[in-house]
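Quick check before the chapter quiz. The format below is the same one you will see on the exam, so make sure you can read both the input and the output lines.
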Amino acid sequence: MGKQPKKDIMLSIPENLLTLRRRLKLSQKDFIQAYLSDETGTPLISVPTLSNIENGSTTGVTELADRVAKKMRVDGSVFLEDPDHFAKNIELFFGDALEAYRPAFREGGKKRSATEVLVETISDYLMDAVIRGELRPGSRLPPDRKLGVLFGAGRSAVREALKVLSTLGIITILPGHGTFIAAESSGFLHLPLSWTFLIGDNPMEHLIDVRNVLEIESARRAAEKADAASLDKLEQIYTNMMRAFQEANFKNFLDQDIDFHVAIAACSQNPIISDLLATSRKILTYISKSGMVTMEDLRSIYAEHSNIYTAITARDPAMAKQMMETHLANARLRYHLNTAFS
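Here is the expected output.
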């Protein structure tokens, strides 16, 4: 290792720890559990503290690096290497330890596929890079080959993972031009949650539960906090939905149905609620194979939407909450928990 000023050496440790975690394909929580916990399994640091370290904090970082090195049975001085040199030679520095000491964290004892792990790892890397200011929404990603070196994966595996991330909306792939982070930062920052939704057990049931919590609160807040612009948008969508109902246009009604609920969330004036609701509905739509099939369904849903709309425009939070609860309860009965539409 070439000589570096002491200050520069200290700054190398956080970046090298981050590179190691990414190479091991571990979340911050799992990395702490594996390498930064005591003999009883109690974490020695929190996830926010590890985030601060990965963002450049050097407080206590030497001790933490020594603990990781000890658990992986390597020389602790490896973390003092220049970050570029460390990244390029990580296989040489750690050898078999990269696989031998990479815990197989599996929820419910189920083994995740290589693609699932790589998708999670790359999305984690992209979020970290955005938070650190290294990348911005709309930024071009490094080439597939460089991503493969960074994550210890082949180019074909990287491409497959990028296709999944593109489907989720985290990135945009433009043939002949490159791969770019999604232009809308708010949506990008919530899309790792989409991946969690998709790979969990019973995704439909869990998604409907999450969606219902968001729907009920957004309706209540919409009646209380909606401004003129968001109410105008809601009115426009409601009018279009009414026209689709009158024309018995099922497809258009379904499109307006989704927009109606998203518009209610926008009326809540909380962009996080709005983004999460849009995300959960998008994934429900993606994995659901059913929809409205009868005129009676159309009639019932339109009536329930009308009640919700009336309560919101009347500025009655309690009534809006009650009408949304009734609507969602009826939806469960209508579709036996098998539909994304309500």
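If your answer matched, good. The two ends are 62 Å apart (CA to CA).
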